[in-house]
Write a structure and sequence with these properties.
The structure holds two protein chains of two kinds.
Chain A: E1 3-13, E2 22-32, E3 36-40, H1 47-55, E4 63-71, E5 74-75, H2 81-90, E6 92-95, H3 99-102, H4 109-120, H5 125-138, H6 144-148, H7 157-169, E7 175-179, H8 187-204, E8 207-212, H9 215-221, E9 224-229, E10 232-238, H10 239-244, H11 249-257, E11 273-286, E12 295-308, E13 312-316, H12 323-330, E14 338-343, E15 346-347, H13 353-360, E16 363-366, H14 380-390, H15 395-408, H16 425-438, E17 443-447, H17 455-472, E18 475-480, H18 483-489, E19 492-497, E20 500-506, H19 507-512, H20 517-524, H21 529-543
Parallel strand pairs in A: 3-8, 3-9, 6-7, 7-8, 13-18, 13-19, 16-17, 17-18
Antiparallel strand pairs in A: 1-2, 1-4, 4-5, 9-10, 11-12, 11-14, 14-15, 19-20
Chain B: H1 3-6, H2 15-24, H3 26-43, H4 45-48, H5 80-116, H6 118-133, H7 136-147, H8 151-178, H9 181-188, H10 193-201, H11 206-229, H12 240-247, H13 255-283, H14 285-291
Helix pairs in contact in B: 2-13, 3-5, 3-13, 5-6, 5-8, 5-11, 6-8, 7-8, 8-11, 11-12, 11-13, 12-13, 13-14
Classes of the chains: A alpha/beta, B mainly alpha.
């Protein structure tokens, strides 16, 4: 194997006043031709900044203060800006996380790829066009002629990412840096893009530096793995070794936090039903203006769900499947167009705001984004007490309850005086949970409550939710796109696609033998599936 | 990422940072100094220049910087410095009250339009647009002329022409905040709308309102001066604009009559604008860094 890129002792300094001195300290990493090296780490581990240092795209005030990056025989850190510019695109290219923002929305995809060729090559117009068409075919975009003339917004997320990859590979670079290229994509699209990167990289012999936080993706694609934490390389080695026999405690912890795909065994819940949803639909209408045609979009149609006391019902699906719409109808942030939401004998679907008031507190929600879900101008104490007080609870009782709840979710009750920005993402999510619990609900609707969190924090928050559910006898509707999480948390799951529930059943049954074709497709796309099942067999063998 | 970078617009709890960020902008500090001088000058007017500023004090058209009258006297022998001190009171009073009225009204309209959306928004915004389509100064002249010139009518006129941009600003802020998850959590608590509007959302858009409001004071002072210049101010109250207007016919013979009140208007408006910009830097520090 020949090394195409050799990073030696790379140190990247953060501006003064940041939470640590160096974003990356003394990083050693070798990238071989024809291999994929995954750089894995949680947020703040310095993995993205290392990638940007390689490309010479560090944000202002962040600079490389030590080490060298050898590309062949040259240390690219000593090159002048024009020399590096010439290297970018030709020798090394980058694929970004969010293809919508990485592509220029005002230029057709064809022109954007063409620009790379115009700048770096002397090909004529016809030749350039032919090259672009060939490459778009190679990245398996249907109808390349149409794609060339399309603007980014006219393509789907997966198509945009394919176009980005085509743009990166057009000059056959030796190094491809991919920064979380599949994080913004749905799981089925992600599986296709990962396969594509693998294929192209093998065919072109490219050395790929693949940045990700997801061990499932790593297991799917990596030849070599480098694990980073707080800007320091924790462990590096061949994929099989790191995945199956990690040496360092941090790596072990990270891999241990990846939720298993084998559903947890649970007692069947046979208590009374607290909520029955029947034939629920929500249609979004956009008026086409004065003379235009009105458009209709069925976000949810004919949804039937049943929630028993004390159970967790998972609603899984990809983006646009209608799972969030259903969640918002259940808590009545949205009014469904048809159907019933039977809450202990009362249909709350048709009620207006006044009529809802007595039932509001019984169904509460935990939100996805820990940064947007707490008012930055209110103290934690206010956030936890204003709901109960709006319902007429005396202030003293509400505060006492708030302190109890803070202790329940594992925070110091003294933090009442503090503002949300003083907490980490995981802590904020705990506060959000406490806020919902303060209303003394029977049903908790959790909309992707852990998808914005790092995997180790994710595990803690899921465990906490489970404990609280058991302790308070809550019923939970758990919305998620992550089947691994669903396997661990849910008693039953409902799979949604295009606004409809296509399959519903006990988690263990659905995972063991998915009936609907879409469910099977979804399961097949879970990254790192084989690795997980190997681990399970291994663990089972050890236990036996 | 650290919490500070990912956090929403949080400036409370960083009081110490506010002043140091404000002080970084030298222009803003200079503006604040000028403004302080004007305020002190206005506050001391009854002590420094007791009596009626319209009273005849000395020989008409005495040049400045000699003898008793520092800025000289006007065509009828009124003390210009006395007029300026009393005029400062008028300008600041009208500027601040008119701005407060405009900000309060604009925030209310914009907040309701932005939070409720739909037909409420459509209706309120069409009304706002009607006000925006009329050239504001001509509209102000018209209003004062109709209601007869007095301090109150000038304040009303200035507020009426100044609130629409604020309503639009606040509406935009409310639209972006109303879909935040914390607002939805408040809805789920069964919190009344007025509390969500004013206790939950409003504090999150105070920074832009304060900045826009501070700049509005400068505009209000300019409109007031212009109205007084045209003789549409309160005839019983001394004003910088009126002084400039009164000195205009003799501009070539007695330059000082127009010049000193004119410079006072210029400096005050400039100072307020500088302070407003400094507030912007201090309250929205991330915007500033992005600009650099």
């Amino acid at each position: 194997m020949t090394a195409v890129l050799d990073i030696r002792g790379l140190t990247v300094a953060l501006p003064s006043g940041a939470d640590r001195m160096n974003a990356v300290s003394d990083l050693n990493l070798t990238l071989n031709a024809g291999e994929i090296t995954c750089v894995v780490g949680e947020s703040g581990s310095g993995k993205s900044l290392s990638a940007r240092a390689v490309m010479g795209l560090l944000p202002p005030k962040v600079s490389v203060t030590g080490g060298e990056i050898m590309f062949g025989d040259t240390n690219i850190l000593t090159l002048s800006e024009p020399e590096r510019r010439a290297m970018r695109g030709e020798d090394m290219a980058m694929v970004f996380q969010e293809p919508m923002t990485a592509l220029n929305p005002l230029m057709t995809v064809g022109r954007q790829i063409d620009e790379v060729l115009r700048i770096h090559t002397k090909f004529g117009r016809k030749e350039r066009r032919q090259r672009i068409l060939d490459l778009l075919t190679e990245v398996k975009l249907p109808t390349p002629e149409r794609i060339i003339a399309s603007y980014p917004h006219q393509l789907s997320g997966g198509q945009r990412q394919r176009a980005m990859i085509a743009m990166a590979l057009i000059l056959d670079p030796k190094v491809l840096v991919a920064d979380e290229p599949t994080t913004a994509l749905d799981v089925t699209t992600q599986a296709q893009i990962l396969r594509l990167i693998r294929e192209l990289q093998e065919r072109h012999g490219t050395g790929v530096m693949f940045i990700t936080h997801d061990f499932g993706v790593v297991a799917e694609i990596a030849d070599h793995i480098a694990v980073m934490q707080h800007g320091v390389l924790v462990e590096a080695g061949p994929a099989a070794q790191i995945l199956n026999n990690p040496q360092r405690p941090y790596t072990q912890e990270l891999i241990g936090s990846v939720p298993s795909l084998v559903p947890r065994k649970r007692e069947a819940v046979t208590t009374r039903t607290v909520m029955t949803v029947s034939d629920l639909s929500k249609i979004y209408r956009s008026s086409g203006g004065l003379f235009g045609k009105a458009k209709e979009f069925k976000a949810a149609s004919g949804v039937n769900l049943e929630l028993k006391r004390g159970e967790t019902l998972g609603v899984v699906g990809e983006s646009g499947s209608g799972k969030t719409t259903v969640a918002r109808c259940l808590v009545r942030l949205l009014q469904p167009d048809t159907g019933k939401i039977d809450l202990d004998g009362v249909d709350i679907a048709p009620l207006n705001r006044q009529g809802l008031r007595p039932y509001r507190n019984r169904v509460q929600m935990v939100f996805q984004d820990p940064y947007a879900s707490l008012n930055p101008r209110r103290t934690v104490g206010h956030i936890l007490t204003e709901g109960p007080m709006a319902r007429g609870k005396p202030g003293k009782d509400a505060h006492a309850r708030a302190r109890e709840l803070l202790a329940l979710v594992g925070l110091d009750p003294k933090v009442e005086e503090r503002y949300p920005h003083e907490f980490s993402g995981g802590q904020r999510q705990r506060i959000g949970l406490a806020r919902a619990l303060a209303m003394e609900p029977e049903i908790l609707v959790a909309d992707e409550p852990v998808s914005a969190l790092d995997v180790s924090v994710q595990a803690q928050v899921l465990k906490l939710m489970d404990e609280i559910r058991e302790q308070l006898g809550l019923s939970v509707v758990f919305i998620t796109h992550d089947l691994r999480v669903a396997a661990q948390v849910c008693d039953r799951i409902a799979v949604m696609s295009k606004g409809e529930v296509v399959e519903q059943g006990k988690t263990a049954d659905v995972f063991a033998s998915p009936q609907h074709e879409y469910t099977r497709e979804l399961f097949a796309a879970i990254p790192g599936r084989e690795w997980s099942s190997e681990m399970e067999t291994h663990a089972a063998a050890v236990n036996a | 990422m650290s919490d500070a970078t990912a956090g929403a617009p949080s400036t409370s709890g960083q009081r110490g940072g506010f002043w140091s960020r404000f002080a970084k902008n030298r222009g803003a500090v200079a503006g604040l100094v000028i403004l302080a001088v004007v305020v002190v000058f206005a506050a001391l007017a009854p002590i420094l220049y007791p009596g009626d500023p319209f009273a005849l004090a000395g020989r008409p058209m005495t040049p400045p910087f000699q003898g008793e009258y520092f800025f000289g006297t006007d065509t009828l022998g009124r003390d210009i410095a006395a007029g300026m001190a009393h005029g400062a009171r008028t300008s600041l009073l009208i500027g601040i009250i008119a701005t407060l009225v405009a900000v309060a009204f604009g925030t209310l309209v914009g907040g309701i339009a932005g939070y409720y959306g739909g037909w409420v928004d459509d209706m309120l915004m069409r009304v706002t647009e009607v006000f925006q389509t009329i050239p504001s100064f001509i509209f102000a002249i018209l209003l004062v002329a109709v209601i007869t010139p007095s301090i109150e009518s000038v304040i009303i006129a200035i507020s009426v022409v100044s609130w629409p941009p604020l309503a639009r600003l606040v509406r935009g802020e409310f639209i972006s905040l109303r879909n935040r998850e914390f607002v939805q959590a408040n809805v789920l608590m069964g919190m009344p709308d007025w509390r969500i509007l004013f206790v939950q959302i409003l504090p999150n858009c105070l920074s832009p309102i304060i900045v826009a409001g501070s700049l509005l004071v400068a505009t209000a002072i300019l409109i007031e001066s212009a109205l007084a210049f045209l003789g549409l101010g309160d005839p019983n109250v001394m004003s910088w604009g009126w002084q400039v207007g009164a000195g205009r016919p003799v501009l070539r013979r007695a330059w000082w009559i127009c010049t000193f009140p004119g410079v006072a208007i210029l400096l005050t408006v400039l100072a307020i604008n500088l302070v407003g910009e400094g507030l912007n830097d201090a309250l929205n520090p991330r915007l500033r860094e992005r600009g650099k």
